[in-house]
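Repro:
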Amino acid sequence: MMTLPPVEVLRPSSVAEAVEALQKHPGSRVLAGGTDIVPNLKYGMYDTQHLVALRGLSKELRYVRLQNDLHLGALCTIDQLAHDETIRRCAPALAEACSQVAGPQLRRMGTLGGNLCLDTRCVYINQSYFWRNALGFCLKKDGTVCHVVAGGQRCVAAASNDTAPVLLALGATIKIVSPRGERELPLRDFYLADGIHNTVLRPDELLTGIRLPKDAFAKRQGFAKLRTRAAIDFPSLNMAVALEIEKGTVKSVSLAVGALAARPALIKGLDDLNGQKADARLAEELARRAHKQCKPLTNIGVDPDWRRDVLPVLVRRMVLRAAATAAAAS
């Protein structure tokens, strides 16, 4: 039986108090829905004495506002976003991704901000302390060896957040607050290729909001997820596409893939596809390019070669669904 270690739970009543608490207690961690951090604390993955609980900030950070752009509070629950009519109309791929996160109970507790900041996962770290100790630990915690990449000097634990590929493909920006003030940056600049700490968040910073630009609403969107079971499981692979289509012709396309490496990433070099027909050839070309750029590792308990073979199949299906939706709507 794994139990929680002794921690002091701090309960700020405002964002200002929350970031002050993060600054005052170095090494503290944020507790939102708790669906990820609580199991990881039981695994002994974190050395922390303080949790900054955000439940008291719900009135401040739980909102869906359509004001030209779409503004989402970081404490919106995953279940809320899966069913919200504004989300389903403006960002249907985000609603679809949220509906496939974990199971119903976890979706009711988990938050959008928590999902975007989800810690990376690896078959060699998300285990009990006894298991990891028997292995000799790893780069991510207590050890010096990467068991995924022989001789590797950088952790390659996988990002497993389902909302990130959608928001990346749609060009979202995020708002971050610290004792120094606010800053906003594109989500594509938020993630790092480091499984130990795969975001640019500093220890005293808090992700408070997400903004989707108005021009994303007209894009035809798709989301796909591969997992061992049809529910509950973390993704073995996930992806999202956003197509801007006019009279059957592509004006812009973006494709994001996650659950492969330490950060979800946009497929590069797609600008030359602008002007092509939104048809099966486009889907095939996007699948080919994604297959070329994505190289799964043994960081999760699913065969990497199989994941790589399945990837272009999912891309083709997802793109064709998005293109068909565009044709039906035009």
